[in-house]
Amino acid sequence: MITPDYIISMVAEHFDLSVDDLAGNKRNSKIVTPRQIAMYLCREIISTPLKTIGKNLGNRDHTTVMHGIDKIEKEIANDENLKNTIDTLKKKINPQG
After folding, report:
1. Which of 31, 81, 87, 91 has the fewest beta carbons closer than 10 A?
2. pTM for the complete prediction?
3. Among 18, 77, 16, 68, CA closest to 42
4. Residues 39-77 pLDDT 10s
5. DSSP notation for the chain
6. Which of the four pLDDT bands, split at 50, 70 and 90, describes residue 97?
7. Separation in Å, CA 80 to CA 56, 65, 84
């Protein structure tokens, strides 16, 4: 079964980060983008509630999660590399999907 924790760990592994990095307070771009991708994938793949995503990523506010998801949705439209990265992660997380 796919859980938010599983998605977060797969994203962390893909970007060579720890789950603690994604859930932590660091805000540099090496961590922020993967964190937002994790938020996006939790919502996209298993419709995780915003509050749950926030809780799993370091007790972030649901508005922070909404912002992260919106940002990734907008960037996918303009950034082929990001779109490919997300497609790759979706296949890793849910090979049958």
Report:
1. 81
2. 0.97
3. 68
4. 999 999 999 999 999 999 999 999 999 999 999 999 999
5. ---HHHHHHHHHHHTT--HHHHHSS--SHHHHHHHHHHHHHHHHHH---HHHHHHHTTS--HHHHHHHHHHHHHHHHH-HHHHHHHHHHHHHH-TT-
6. confident
7. 28, 23, 6
